[in-house]
Amino acid sequence: MRPLLLLFVLATCCLGADAAALSAKGFKVTEKNGVITGLNGSTKGFTADDFKAIAAVTTLTQLSLDGGEVNDENLTRLAGLSALQTMSFNATSFSDDGCKVFAGFPKLKSLALFHPSRSNPAFTGAGLAHLAALPEFESLTLAGANVGDPALTAIATLPRLKSLRLWHNIETADGLKALSSMTSLRKLTLGQRLAGRPAKPASLSDASLPSIAKITGLEELTLQEARLSGDALMKLRDLPNLKKLTVSQVDTPAADVEKLKAALPKVTIDWKPLTEEQAKTLTEKLKL
After folding, report:
1. Cβ neighbours of residue 10 under 8 Å, at least 6 residues apart?
2. Dihedral angle of Cα 206, 156, 260, 252, to the nearest 10 degrees
3. Residue 105 pLDDT
4. Do the first three CATH levels of 1-160 and 162-288 match, i.e. the same topology?
5. Directed axis angle between helix 48-55 and helix 3-14, to 10°?
6. Could you tell me the residue ranges of all domains in the chain?
7. For residue 261, what are the CA distances in angstroms to 231, 257, 264?
8. What does the alpha-carbon distance between residue 159 and residue 169 come to, in Å, rounded to a whole number?
9. Which end of the chain has the lower number of beta carbons within 10 A, N or C?
10. In whole angstroms, what is the distance from residue 119 CA to residue 92 CA?
């Protein structure tokens, strides 16, 4: 997409013109009352001018971008989008230092990072601590990242976080202990670490559950891709506010699940036996 053409299309759409031209360039466009409120698309081949054009759409409340062109410099070019409430990125290349930009989005409530900066060693996840400055920030997803315990330490400093989703990163069971101090957390989805070569110890295992059981504000908990014993799951009785437990793609004896249901009669427990394909994933992909 040529930068000048993108500038023209975005400018005319912001003035209330039909968004069809922008859609034709690959963006999914969301409009409300004649103005653009959401953009979703790939940044492949984008230049600095293209990012400046996106930044000109100051009515945006939602932005989802996919591509390595989302680096420190181009993330900074989006800093003027002060109305943003929801952001989602996939396969980015920004660093911890680049995360400073997020602190400049005063209305940001939700951030999702899928496969972030996997080839950039300057992104350890520690930069996520900059999100702590946001007065309304309450939801974070971090998945498929080459980051581990430093990211969890940073996440644990977010004082208003209510929802956290983690899977396919490289944290350890010991690193998960940092989350036990998060008194604001109400929803937690916790998946397995990436296996690595050689395979690393499981991050979600029996050893993890005592730490999870200390997050006493949890109302909804999802555990996925693990091998968990009935005795370990019983630790979840220490969660006084738990209302819903989802145990997905987890190797746990059915009899132990029934015991857990009896022990937690007020908790809705969603569990299904492993399929053959799921069992194969645990063994071959996740090396459990």
Report:
1. 22, 36, 53, 54, 56, 57
2. -40
3. 97
4. yes
5. 0
6. 1-160, 162-288
7. 13, 6, 5
8. 22
9. N
10. 9
In tens, the pLDDT along 47-74 reads 898 898 889 889 999 999 999 999 999 9
Q: 116 vs 59, 67, 168, 262, CA distance in Å?
A: 26, 9, 12, 41
Cβ-based neighbour number of residue 44 at 10 Å: 12
> Quick check: 14 pLDDT over 50?
no
Q: Nearest to residue 272, comparing CAs of 239, 224, 229, 218?
A: 224
Structure tokens at 218: 């949890």
> Looking up tokens 């100051």, which residue turns up?
58
CB 282 within 8 A of CB 288: yes
pTM of the model: 0.91
State the Cα–Cα distance between residues 146 and 215, nearest whole angstrom.
25
Q: Residue 27's closest CA among 4, 49, 47, 50? A: 50
Q: What is the pLDDT of residues 218-270, one digit of tens each?
A: 999 999 999 999 999 999 999 999 999 999 999 999 999 999 999 999 999 99
Q: Which CATH architecture has domain 1-160?
A: Alpha-Beta Horseshoe (3.80)
Find the mean pLDDT for residues 200-208.
94
Q: Which of these, 131, 183, 177, lies nearest to 155 by C-alpha position?
A: 131
| CATH code linked to domain 162-288 | 3.80.10.10
Tokens coding 136? 């309304």
